[in-house]
């Protein structure tokens, strides 16, 4: 990744004061295209369709939500030299895609994207259907790795043993938040705390909800609700007993990526409709309130079909005006009504945090790094875990 990502973590998350001292960065992200040096919608409110010649619908859907997530797309398109990179990196391939999309008047096939899959998704076979969620995470992993490789050795090597790297990458600055996990022993009442950074929330659908319409807030309530676990060995009293576990968001991300876990361990699909809102307020899931944690929907990926191995992916994205929404089905594109939008069977949702980005070049507010702040699938979050730390004990 050409361009240095510098985000300094000023104090450790374990103090819980880090919400007041976020990962500061000289990288600036914008909420609109206004004032862009190289990207100009030229009066258009949306990108163009993408041709599909080899079962690439999963990739086309992912590319559309990247393009229409303005803070992310503008960073990639503006900050990366188009022809100076001789390594065919993923970031430069995406930059070329974004720039071409902003100038093209008709659907096209970004042939150079094939090397993105080769580098970011080496297990992919040409013509094979893939999971769009997995593809997006491979791309984010590759961008993160390229950014780290582009850092100076001093930036990359300086680290705190508890809190990890001192400098954060653009992917971290945009997508990463921090969870505060708490467990309490039922025998001795000891409270243990640990922290984990997350890049997405993976929300399961309980079987009790299969026969009714449920909401995204229902899934969030389940995810952040308390649960009782048996056979836990307490590090304080040394007994094996029950514990109560709960999680809250210590620091919210600027781009909130949500996956609804629609595929079970056998590859079958859970087709329950999940209602979602255009605005999402996370306040009730925040460890300590006092700041706004409101998000607006910018992109949806929908899977159409009965199993993960086959089917079709489409994207629904917010237009550049921030008000209208459009459906992309490979080459096809049309504006959708609110009723059509809410009938989308979401598999992934991407939300942008309000007031987290500059509105124009002249604005004085830069990215604030979160403004200071189940089903059968085995993975709860894409996270980086740390050991539990005993905080207090009540008897």
TrEMBL record:
<dbReference type="GO" id="GO:0042981">
    <property type="term" value="P:regulation of apoptotic process"/>
</dbReference>
<dbReference type="InterPro" id="IPR028889">
    <property type="entry name" value="USP"/>
</dbReference>
<keyword id="KW-0645">Protease</keyword>
<dbReference type="GO" id="GO:0005829">
    <property type="term" value="C:cytosol"/>
</dbReference>
<dbReference type="InterPro" id="IPR001394">
    <property type="entry name" value="Peptidase_C19_UCH"/>
</dbReference>
<dbReference type="GO" id="GO:0006508">
    <property type="term" value="P:proteolysis"/>
</dbReference>
<dbReference type="InterPro" id="IPR038765">
    <property type="entry name" value="Papain-like_cys_pep_sf"/>
</dbReference>
<dbReference type="InterPro" id="IPR050164">
    <property type="entry name" value="Peptidase_C19"/>
</dbReference>
<dbReference type="InterPro" id="IPR018200">
    <property type="entry name" value="USP_CS"/>
</dbReference>
<dbReference type="GO" id="GO:0005730">
    <property type="term" value="C:nucleolus"/>
</dbReference>
<keyword id="KW-0833">Ubl conjugation pathway</keyword>
<dbReference type="GO" id="GO:0004843">
    <property type="term" value="F:cysteine-type deubiquitinase activity"/>
</dbReference>
<keyword id="KW-0788">Thiol protease</keyword>
<comment type="similarity">
    <text>Belongs to the peptidase C19 family.</text>
</comment>
<protein>
    <recommendedName>
        <fullName>Ubiquitin carboxyl-terminal hydrolase 36</fullName>
        <ecNumber>3.4.19.12</ecNumber>
    </recommendedName>
</protein>
<feature type="domain" description="USP">
    <location>
        <begin position="48"/>
        <end position="354"/>
    </location>
</feature>
<dbReference type="Pfam" id="PF00443">
    <property type="entry name" value="UCH"/>
</dbReference>
<dbReference type="GO" id="GO:0016579">
    <property type="term" value="P:protein deubiquitination"/>
</dbReference>
<keyword id="KW-0378">Hydrolase</keyword>
């Amino acid at each position: 990744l050409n361009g240095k990502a510098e985000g300094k973590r000023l104090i450790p998350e374990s103090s819980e004061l880090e919400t007041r001292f976020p990962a500061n960065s000289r990288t600036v992200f914008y909420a609109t295209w206004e004032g862009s040096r190289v990207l100009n919608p030229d009066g258009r409110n949306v990108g163009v369709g993408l041709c599909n010649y080899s079962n690439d619908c999963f990739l086309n859907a992912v590319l559309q939500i990247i393009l229409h997530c303005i803070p992310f797309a503008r960073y990639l398109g503006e900050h990366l030299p188009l022809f100076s990179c001789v390594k065919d990196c993923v970031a430069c391939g995406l930059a070329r895609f974004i720039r071409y999309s902003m100038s093209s008047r008709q659907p096209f096939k970004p042939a150079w994207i094939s090397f993105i899959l080769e580098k970011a998704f080496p297990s992919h076979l040409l013509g094979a259907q893939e999971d769009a969620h997995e593809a997006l995470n491979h791309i984010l992993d590759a961008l993160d790795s390229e950014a780290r490789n582009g850092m100076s050795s001093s930036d990359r090597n300086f680290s705190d043993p508890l809190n990890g790297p001192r400098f954060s990458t653009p992917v971290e600055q945009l997508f990463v938040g921090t969870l505060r996990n708490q467990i309490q022993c039922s025998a001795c009442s000891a409270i243990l705390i640990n922290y984990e950074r997350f890049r997405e929330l993976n929300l399961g659908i309980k079987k009790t909800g299969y026969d009714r319409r449920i909401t995204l807030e229902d899934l969030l309530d389940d995810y952040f609700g308390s649960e009782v676990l048996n056979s836990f060995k307490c590090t304080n009293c040394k007994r094996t007993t029950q514990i109560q576990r709960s999680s809250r968001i210590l620091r919210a991300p600027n781009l909130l990526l949500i996956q609804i876990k629609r595929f079970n361990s056998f590859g079958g699909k859970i087709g329950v409709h999940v209602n979602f809102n255009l605005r999402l307020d996370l306040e009730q899931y925040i460890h300590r309130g006092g700041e706004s944690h409101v998000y607006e929907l910018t992109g949806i990926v929908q899977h159409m079909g009965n199993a993960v191995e086959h089917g079709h992916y489409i994207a629904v994205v917010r237009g550049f005006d921030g008000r209208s929404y459009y459906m992309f089905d490979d080459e096809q594109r049309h504006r959708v009504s609110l009723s059509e939008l809410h009938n989308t069977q979401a598999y992934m949702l991407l939300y942008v945090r309000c007031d987290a980005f500059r509105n124009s070049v002249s604005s004085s507010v830069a990215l604030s790094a979160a403004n200071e702040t189940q089903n059968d699938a085995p993975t709860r979050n894409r996270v980086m875990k740390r050991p539990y730390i005993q905080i207090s004990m009540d008897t």
